[in-house]
Amino acid sequence: MKFSRTFALLTIALLPFSGATQAQDKPQIQLHWLEHDSARASVGTTWGVPWPQGAVQKQSEFTLNSEAGPLPVQSWPLAYWPDGSVKWSGHAIAPLAVDATALTLRPGASASPEQALTVTENSESIRVDTGTIEAVIVKSGDRLIQSITRDGRKTLNNGRLVVLSQNRAEPEVGEPLTVNAFNGRVDNVTLEQQGPQRAVVKLEGKHVGDKGRAWIPFVARLYFYAGDDSVRLMHTMIYDGDQKQDFIRGVGVRFDVPMDGPLHDRHVRFSGQDDGLFAEAVRGITGLRRNPGEAVRQAQIDGRATAPLDEWAKSVSDRIDVIPAFGDYTLTQLTADAFEIRKRTQPGLAWLDSAEGGRSSGLGYIGSPEGGVAFGIRDFWQSHPSQLDIRNARTDNAEVTLWLWSPESRAMDMRFYHDGMGLDTHEKQLDAMGVTYEDYEPGFASATGVARTSELRIWALPATPNRETMVQMARTLAEPPQMVARPTDYESAGVFGAAIWDLQDRSTPAKTAVEDQVDFYLDHYLTQVEEHNWFGFWDYGDVMHTYDHDRHTWRYDVGGFAWANSELSPDIWLWYSFLRTGRADVFQMAEAMTRHTGEVDVYHLGRFEGLGSRHNVKHWGDSAKQLRISTPANRRFYYYLTADERVGDLMRATLGAERRLLDVPPLRKLNRDRPDFTGKPYSMMMGLGTDWNSVAAAWLTEWERTGEPEYRDKLLRAMRSIGEFEHGLLSSGTAYDPDTGRFYRVGEGVSGSHLAMVFGGVEINAELIQLLDVPEYEAAFIQYGQFFNADSEEKAEIIGQPYNRNLNLGQAHSRMTAYSAWKLKDKALAERAWNEFFGARAGIGIYGTPYPTRTVTPPDVLAPVTEARGVSTNAVSQFGLTAIQIMALISEEAPEEVPARD
């Protein structure tokens, strides 16, 4: 079993740390780019790394070294171990001047920057100077960014937010269609970091219309790095309208670009697919009946200043004013597979179709040889409908809008997809669930409170960039550089439950078969995203729940079988898979899922604030509003790997969310009377499964992020009170005091649920037991693992009473059997765990290589699709997690060969 690795981790944790330790004796992390691409524009970067317990003290600085020497780095703690040492640290660097492919991070003094970022703040504004650009952010009003200046020249002005709303989903004959505009009003500005390598400014507010209506709250963060000429913008909108009459037509970020120079020296750029580039001048001088001169034409094609008009051929220069100048340009991406570029001279006149293609990376540019602005939306085609607008480029002040929701698309329709079908009682709803698997209830399919976060980037440039530079910037926009550590560094730090995951192991035929099948599922889901077009503003990042082999598609339109909404932890499976493999494609899929499930599938205001929605055709459609979806267990990985502030906000927002269950009782449809808690030390009923695990994840995350004892103490009280119950985590009828965290037994009997531990429960409990010494709770968790898959006689022996219920998800819970075997050093229990895993009850068997797949082709389908036997998101997620964890816990007890199946 995994005893030798545990001893090694303990040894590392007990090593003394001293500031006088020689550099070679200090702990160090090897870093590299997630995807190395030297043909990318360099921008500032932020990331997080883990450290073994006791290795790095709280006040430690960090030194970052490359092959070219030390690099300045800004560092801060992200999380602490129970002894107060640093568990995770966040780091930021300026754009690298070297093509660094391998960096080393260790405790020590950081190198002094040659160019430091500076911040000046007063009561009215914040001024950020990166050394290359200077930005002014005002603390109130309708401007997100007042100005960005480069080399003394105003490059960008009046950065602002805009929302368009219409009163109907679509035009109807004889009915008026009214469109209203709302501008973002900043109500609160916070300087979250201020250098010397990185500054972060957070702006919050709402969109306000001409008649005073304030709605659609927003959170925007601006990121600046020393020496960087770009600004990263994270934009979050929260929907709080009436979904029956508020149909959003457009969501955008808008700013003005001062224009100078003659119209033939003003340039427009849009990125297309791959390295494709649309590049034209506002007034083109190529293709004319008369030739202005080869050097003049080439200068315009290159984006350089052309020669003075008196050096042109007079046949053109004398007629320059009759050559049309195009002031307006638009790039639209209304579906995942088609973009269009068009232009016109001015409003009121016809558009010309200029170009079209498949998938644009979403970068634009407007400017001249004297300076300009490049701008873009990350995941442009994945998050369609998207759009980039340039207006008034013929004037002294061009206007740019980055549309996160294109106004040329259908309006955003947040309504539910059916009318309720007469399901007006709990009895009818439960009966209907038996066929569609949809937990519907009137008033619960509400979008009020769901959110969407988008990433944008803006470059303030000294001149029109050449074509190669534009392509590099487009690559950076699509896949921003992300620093990561090696899988061995994540593993040796002992984070995310040290015992339950390890690096890949193909040392025997059986282990090879297991690893190959886990890898197959990762590859298959990446393929499914593409084949089934799981893209779009509200959908990108999620996957579907269950497949329909009759129609050869996922059940996108069948109740609770559609979007997965984190059901049975695909998020966690992806993140553990990245930690142990370092695969860039897995990181990117997990990143998109974390962004989506934390925003779209969770409520951020209103009646259900802090809760998430169960799987459904609409992400917010199901009436099961639960902590198991909003749990920080799904988001901790991304936060610690990237130090992302928005995800940090989302996790903190779940603190106290369990109180919402008082108003939205999870068991309300089972006709259970709400108990009278008058005079009791507790105020609500709470089960010891998905709800408790979600609360524990929120407390654990807040405790380790801050080091403050409040949430540690609540964890201890909760764990001790649960451990004191006769049947521990198997106890039914438990009540809870949210103020203290203590649980109380108010019922009788034993309760076992197949869902209790499969929403991050195994993973969070493994961490709790690793970090907190509560023997009675540890014993309760071990007992749970022994009990769940035991036969009836063993169950009765464990709990001291008959228990004949056959619990579901046997394969998934074999990892709990394995955990108990590892803790008890019980080889017989370990053998049982492997038998449970390979037995695959309510799971997936080992199919061998190659995995049985087939390709279905037209006319049976619209386009070719790949089908794989036994694949559903529930089963695959739990198979992946179980395979990872059972291999880590009881690897030495694994059979040499895959057992023959009955």
From TrEMBL:
Residues 1-23 form the signal peptide. InterPro entries: PcRGLX/YetA-like, PcRGLX/YetA_2nd, PcRGLX/YetA_3rd, PcRGLX_1st. It holds the Pfam family PcRGLX_2nd. Residues 480-894 form the PcRGLX/YetA-like C-terminal alpha/alpha toroid domain. Residues 118-474 form the PcRGLX/YetA-like central beta-sandwich domain. Residues 28-106 form the PcRGLX/YetA-like N-terminal RIFT barrel domain. Keywords: Signal. PANTHER family: CONCANAVALIN A-LIKE LECTIN/GLUCANASE (PTHR40081), TAT PATHWAY SIGNAL SEQUENCE DOMAIN PROTEIN (PTHR40081:SF1). This is Tat pathway signal sequence domain protein. It comes from Gilvimarinus gilvus. The lineage of its organism: Bacteria, Pseudomonadati, Pseudomonadota, Gammaproteobacteria, Cellvibrionales.
